[in-house]
Amino acid sequence: MLVLIVADKFKDAAKAGLKARLQLLAEVDRATLQLCEACQFILDEALPESEIRPAVFEQIPREQLAKAVTLVGQEMSPQGPHYYDQLIHGYRSVRHFLPTLLQTITFQSVSDEADVLSAWQFLYRLDHEKPKPDIQDAPQGVVHSAAWRAVVFNAHKQIDRRYYTFCTLHQLMAALQRRDIFIAPSRHWQDQRQQLLQGEAWQKARPHVCAALGKSTDGAQEVAKLANQLDELYRQVAKRLAQNKAVSIKKEGEFERISLRRVQYSHLLRWER
């Protein structure tokens, strides 16, 4: 139920954000035209540099130009809109079940998910401890993307509890889906390691499993092989990176990420036919 409800809230936020964005398109077009006009003065080689700013502000008042820059910057984000700001409308319904959920279910981790669990435990303290902790003391490791930081922290760099809650829920759902976080006891959301053979049963089955997979029973030897393969592939990719038109590095806020362009395989299909 938690997964369904949270997914529904994010879907509603995306729909509301898209609707609001469509309503803003006319304003974005006007702002873009104003920026285009300003750029024309900059590109005019006949206009002395000392006269560019006065000429621009004479045509477009400084306040209007500043609004245009802000609007276009918000709506033309390189990583695309997330509409997290629209989640605010679903916070009241989340509050109907969240305190009971925090008190009833304990999540555990199979890997390094300390940030998510710390944030979840802090939400528990907000509802069930007296005196309540200050929301500004909330663990911030869970807010690791620029899109979330834009809504979790307000203009005064203060944490908004509503968006912090949704950010924590979002990261929790992702970790649950990856099975990095589990619930015990549970049939569906259990620790997947419990399904593995343990102890003597595994020692008996191990040679047969390794033989079937074509692997050695020496774990260190297999890890070393994988490390060598990874190193070799990494060096091959790095060597061709500058010539690879399908790969580029894009900056998102203060971070950089690899962007992969979809490769067209139509010429391969024609060759096969």
- In the predicted model, the low-confidence regions spanning at least 5 consecutive residues are 265-273
What is the number of strand segments?
4
Helical residues, percent: 55-70%
Total of helices:
10
Assembly level: single chain
Report the sheet-strand fraction.
5-15%
pLDDT averaged over residues: 85
End-to-end CA span: 49 Å
- Computed over alpha carbons, the radius of gyration is 26 Å
Q: Give the structural class.
A: mainly alpha
Question: What's the shape?
Answer: flat
Strands across the major sheet, in which order? 1-2
Order of helices and strands: HHHHEHHHEHHEEH
Largest sheet: 2 strands, antiparallel
In short:
This protein is mainly α and 273 residues long. Helices cover 59% and strands 7% of the residues.
List the keywords.
273 residues; two-stranded antiparallel sheet; 10 helices; mainly alpha
Write the layout of secondary structure elements.
Elements lengths: L1 H42 L8 H8 L2 H14 L15 H14 L2 E3 L4 H15 L17 H7 L8 H18 L2 E3 L15 H15 L5 H22 L6 E6 L2 E6 L5 H7 L1
Antiparallel strand pairs: 1-2, 3-4
